[in-house]
Design brief:
heterodimer; A: mainly alpha; two-stranded antiparallel sheet; 24 helices; globular; B: alpha/beta; six-stranded mixed sheet; 7 helices; 32% strand
């Protein structure tokens, strides 16, 4: 006889379970939230906003910017959250689009993400030197009067310094991932928590010190002449902040927030490993966006109170100073500066690990599904990690790092347009889901309707509108790298459709072996 | 010959129907179900007033009034892999309080539902030329074996024996090495190897072989699962689940010794993968039964060799 147990429901047993083996889903409440927060990357979001949004967007109200971008991100976030609840499988758009629209479109959407993940491997690995190591050595060296530190700072800021530091970081991460994710997470979770102290110190200094005191210390650190002639030098460097309010520039300034915040849905990619996906995914994605937006608003308010956003923008435009450097100089304390700058190093590359992990995970999936060569699916016999896929992603990231360092047109925001194209396909799939797969939709936890229209379709439409607004913003923003560069726009479009080409080549190859890859995610009829 | 293999559907009627329909969908001539057929949860529908029923599904109270509505509710419960049981308030109280009675009802329901499944399969596959092989898994209680044994052709129970079809031979075993759940069909490794070797002794050396073994081989990538504590909590290291190999060393030894062309496995739902052990292609398509998705493998065999395989989710 099996042992059965009564399961408590609202104060009394309502169902009966027998003792049996079961699927153990791995990621719990906190794990999913942390995963999404890591992909948003609070440190990089703050760094980019203070470096660019404060400086080059005339009439932008950055508080309104943060709120607008939150509102624009939420519908897309809900699309992924609804899908993750209805189809809790790892792979996100690869699964959703394949099943709702067509496997070829699923591959196109997924490949687009994979390609950009490893192309974007170049950006955060460059940030490691540019936002982490170089400012640390320069700032602390300058405050402490240590010559060799300042020289190191200059070297890390150079092209070769950035490339070598970034390459070492990529190689170390690939090696850690090849030994298994546990080792990496053990290290990274600790470093991430420690690095948060950097924000606490910045917030403490900006909250507790007077503006006069901070400016006096800033002047001492940077040189009084720098502050005195700041208006002029900033204008010469292209500073365009301040002036009468402009809704257009308020929205455009949000491109630097959007590139971080829109990845609050990243737990959809590990959907198969999430406990109680129907509830957890639904709230963890929007909550990550709420927390990140609240963080950004608090940092803006503190910076405004401490130094003024205009001063920060002018320092960013004329000196290329990060908010961490402004805060560090403003402390007047070498020890505090050492801690702020040193701990922020671990925030400077936080996009990178997730990108490497997700891209290699996708290569493994393509290989298992017959869309890529078998060799990419080879798993290390001892560590069970996709070693070949990891090495490919590592090599691609190093090539992208070289492009980011030496090709001037390859700007930070260039690829987000490609991600938006992918999200548009997912939003169309969300609109169609209740009609294309009515049975799956009806039995899903997100089958509610408003006025007879499925909520799923409603959020799909809202997401589509939001994405079109952001596509316009990235094509219009002069700092995003796409405006005036049709070649880069075409690169985005070509990468986007290259997944279709890969799919049809793989389909032809597999078809000659008698395998129909279009059946990979096709729904078997129930009746 | 093309075969379709799936496993670990754990009582999901939706997945059973998909499994039977998979033959036509993937154009397969042979269907193989690798075990763990029966469900884990029984949902009582309590009659509160004549013709009015209440059930708790996924934590939500659901009401049904009239035969049509209650039948619809039962269908929805079955789709999710649960067993619906109609009862009155007195019977419900007895189910809550009397463990022996509850177990008896559970078994009765499991057998009844399985019987219905077999009738559906026989009706759907009769005259199609498709053969359908079934076996229990380590999670299935003993009393379903006689229900499976009574399956009408072309559905056939293959547990613990050698089967021949389309020029290949297949041995099948539901048994697993010990698990933290102490399920019905578990054996220590030495005894398991002895049992499997006895089965393999029936193989003819000149005929290509398939091993249909519920439990995957140890350290094959088909057997990776989170390590669990004695109270079934996931062991974490550095905030991440600690993943370990939990497959059977006996199964691995058997495959290494006999080198069949193909080994089909289930059991570890989260370890969907394919691997090679020597000349043997080993496949575990995994299981996502709770999501209404049937994970399976389509395998093409020609001239005693596996010419291609594909993991599918349908």
């Amino acid at each position: 006889m099996a042992e059965s147990t009564a399961v408590q429901g609202q104060g009394r047993p309502e169902t009966f379970e027998r003792r049996a083996t079961g699927l153990v889903r791995e990621a719990g409440t906190l794990d999913v939230l942390v995963y999404n927060m890591n992909f948003i990357s609070l440190g990089l979001m703050a760094a980019l906003v203070f470096l660019f949004s404060t400086a080059f967007y005339p009439g932008a109200n950055l508080y309104l910017t943060a709120i607008l971008i939150f509102l624009v991100v939420i519908p897309t976030s809900l699309v992924f959250a609804f899908f993750a609840s209805a189809m809790p499988r790892s792979g996100a758009d690869y699964v959703y689009v394949s099943r709702v629209l067509h496997p070829a479109l699923g591959m196109m959407s997924s490949w687009n993400n994979t390609a950009w993940w490893f192309i974007y491997g170049g950006v955060p690995s460059a940030f490691f030197a540019q936002f982490g190591l170089a400012p640390f050595f320069s700032t602390v060296g300058q405050m402490a009067g240590i010559g060799w530190m300042q020289s190191w700072g200059t070297w890390f800021a150079s092209n070769w310094g950035t490339f070598i530091a970034g390459t070492v970081l990529i190689v170390v991460l690939v090696a850690l991932f090849a030994r298994g994710m546990r080792l990496y997470f053990r290290v990274q979770n600790t470093l991430f928590l420690i690095s948060l102290v950097s924000f606490v110190l910045i917030a403490g200094v900006w909250l507790l010190r007077s503006r006069t005191g901070i400016l006096a210390d800033l002047g001492q650190g940077l040189g009084q002449n720098t502050l005195r002639g700041l208006g002029q030098s900033a204008a010469k460097a292209g500073f365009a902040g301040g002036g009468p309010f402009s809704l257009k520039w308020t929205l455009l300034a949000g491109t630097w927030i959007y590139i971080n915040l829109v990845f609050n849905q990243s737990s959809a990619y590990i959907g198969g490993e999430v406990k109680r996906a129907s509830r957890l995914q639904l709230w963890s994605m929007p909550l990550a966006a709420v927390l990140a937006t609240a963080f950004m608003l608090i940092m803006l308010a503190l910076a405004d109170k401490a130094v003024g956003l205009t001063t920060i923008g002018r320092l960013a435009a004329s000196q290329g100073l990060l908010f961490t450097q402004i805060a560090a100089f403003g402390t007047g304390s070498t020890l505090l500066a050492f801690l702020i700058m040193g701990l922020f190093i671990f925030q400077s590359y936080t996009w990178l690990p997730g990108q490497i992990a997700n891209a290699s995970r996708n290569f493994l999936a393509y290989s298992i599904d017959g869309l890529m060569p078998k060799a990419l699916g080879r798993v290390h016999p001892k560590y069970h990690t996709p070693v070949n896929a990891l090495m490919l992603v590592g090599a691609g990231s190093i090539a992208a790092l070289a492009a980011f360092v030496w090709v001037p047109n390859f700007a930070t925001l260039v690829g987000i347009f490609g991600f938006i194209l992918g999200f548009i396909v997912v939003s169309i799939a969300a609109i169609m889901f209740p009609y294309r797969l009515p049975d799956v939709f009806a039995s899903s936890p997100v089958n509610s309707r408003i006025g007879g229209i499925p909520w799923m379709s409603v959020v799909g439409v809202l997401s589509l509108v939001a994405l079109l607004i952001m596509a316009w913003a990235f094509l219009t923003d002069p700092s995003a790298g796409l405006n005036g560069h049709p070649g880069l726009i075409w690169m985005n479009i070509l990468i986007f459709i290259s997944g279709l080409v890969i799919y049809f080549i793989a389909k032809a190859v597999q078809s000659s072996r008698g395998v129909d890859v279009s059946k990979r995610f096709a729904e078997i009829p129930v009746e | 010959m093309r075969l379709y293999y799936a496993s670990d559907i754990h009582g999901s009627e939706k997945l059973w129907r998909k499994f039977i329909n998979a033959a036509t969908f993937y154009e397969a001539q042979v269907l193989i179900m690798g075990g763990d057929l029966t469900g884990k949860v029984m949902v009582p529908l309590v009659e509160q007033r004549p013709g009015e029923w209440v059930a708790q599904v996924f934590g939500k109270k659901q009401k049904a009034k009239g035969e049509d509505k209650v039948a619809e509710l039962e269908r929805n419960i079955r789709v999710n892999g649960f067993y619906p049981v109609r009862c009155d308030q007195n019977e419900f109280t007895k189910l809550q309080e009397d463990e022996t009675h509850r177990d008896e009802v559970f078994h009765q329901v499991m057998r009844g539902e399985l019987q219905r499944w077999l009738e559906f399969a026989a009706g759907r596959l009769e005259g199609s030329g498709i053969r359908c092989f079934l076996m229990p898994g380590n999670d299935d209680d003993w009393d379903i074996d006689d229900v499976l044994g009574e399956a009408a052709p072309p559905v056939e129970s293959v547990e613990g024996r050698l089967t021949e079809f389309d020029g290949v031979q297949m041995i099948s075993s539901a048994w697993a090495n010990p698990t933290p759940w102490d399920s019905p069909r578990e054996l220590p490794e030495e005894e398991l190897l002895e049992r499997l070797e006895k089965l393999a002794a029936e193989l003819r050396p000149d005929v290509p072989a398939i091993f249909n073994l519920h439990c995957p081989p140890f350290d094959s990538g088909l057997d990776v699962a989170p390590e669990l504590t004695d109270d079934l909590r996931v062991v974490r290291e550095g905030g991440e689940p600690k993943l370990i190999s939990v497959g059977s060393t006996s199964v691995r030894t058997l495959i290494e010794r006999h080198q069949p062309m193909l080994a089909l496995h289930g059991h570890i739902h989260e370890s969907r993968a394919a691997a090679e052990i020597g000349r043997t292609i080993c496949i575990n398509p995994g299981s996502a039964y709770s999501q209404g998705v049937l994970d399976g493998a389509v395998v093409d065999i020609e001239g005693g060799n596996v010419v291609s395989y594909q993991l599918v989710s349908g």
